[in-house]
Amino acid sequence: MVRGVGEAISLPALEERNLRIDLDIPGLPEGSRGAIVNAGFMFSKDGPGVNEPPPKLGAHTAEVLSSLGFDEQEQREITAP
């Protein structure tokens, strides 16, 4: 079965296995929280996790394009609306 993101993140098994992490994500309506899927493994004393929400769309675009060798002019051309 192929599930959408909303349906997949709502599966009871994720919460039972501590695989879902609820986060406050800037930009969501007041009082709303988002959820992400945690790593699929646990350590003996605790597990992996996150303290920050995921980056906003485009937050690392310049960094990635620079690492691929694009200069600033080429980056503007690529990212122009």
Note the topology:
Layout: H1 5-9, H2 12-16, E1 20-23, E2 34-37, H3 61-67, H4 72-79
Antiparallel strand pairs: 1-2
Quick structural summary:
By secondary structure, the chain is an alpha+beta fold.
Protein model, in words:
With 81 residues, the protein is of the alpha+beta class. It folds into two domains: 48 residues, no CATH class; 31 residues, no CATH class. A two-stranded antiparallel sheet has the order 1-2.
Oligomeric form? single chain
Number of helices: 4
Percent of residues in beta strands = 5-15%
Sheet having the most strands: 2 strands, antiparallel
Structural class: alpha+beta
Number of domains: 2
Radius of gyration: 18 Å
Query: How would you state the average pLDDT, rounded?
Result: 85
Terminal-residue CA separation? 36 Å
* Beta strand count: 2
Helix share bin: 25-40%
Instruction: Give the strand order, joined by hyphens, for the main sheet.
Output: 1-2
Q: What's the helix-strand series? A: HHEEHH
Low-confidence stretches: none
Q: What's the overall geometry?
A: elongated
Give descriptors for this structure.
81 residues, alpha+beta, two-stranded antiparallel sheet, 31% helix, 10% strand
